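During the no-cost extension, the postdoctoral fellow (Dr. R.K.) reprocessed legacy sequence entries with the updated structure-token encoder. One reprocessed record is reproduced below for audit purposes.
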Amino acid sequence: MKADVFRRRMRGAAWLPVAVLLAGCEPGAEGGFDRVSWRGEPQVPKAAFPDPPAVTPGTTVGATAARIVATNLPQGVTQAMVDQGQDQFGTVCASCHGQGGAGSPAAPALNDAQWLNITGQYPEIINIINVGVANPKQYPGVMPPKGGGSFDDQQVAAIAAYVYALSHQGGA
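Re-encoded structure tokens follow.
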């Protein structure tokens, strides 16, 4: 009889260290962890975040790409701004809008005269870069403000100059 009581007490005592460890794991307990409600990766709709287009090996962006010679620039916009904008465009914008603004499944072409969300004037281009496109008319992904980059006002003006030059080569 004494042996049974001793064994029951020992079984209960074996759980004591486990109980002490688990006590700190309750939600809200100091040093505890939040409860995991699911396992594995959350399912995000593919259309919400399309993969950026692949860059073709051998293509160039930024300063090493052929410079465009801007024509019909608005007042206050210079070729130097267009060149700087081309460098900046290659860092973030080209991942969705394609090399040279050629477009992709994620975002429209910027090297033609067709505009979807604005009329294509320089001040509008600056504005749309700054605020982004929350509800695109034809493409699956939204454009975050500044394309998700951390551009200052001068860089935004230069990117807008480059985009303007891409789309206005044939006329004003």
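The chain is about 35% helix and 0% strand. The helical segments are 2-14, 16-23, 79-89, 94-97, 122-131, 153-167. The remaining legacy entries will be reprocessed before the final report is submitted.
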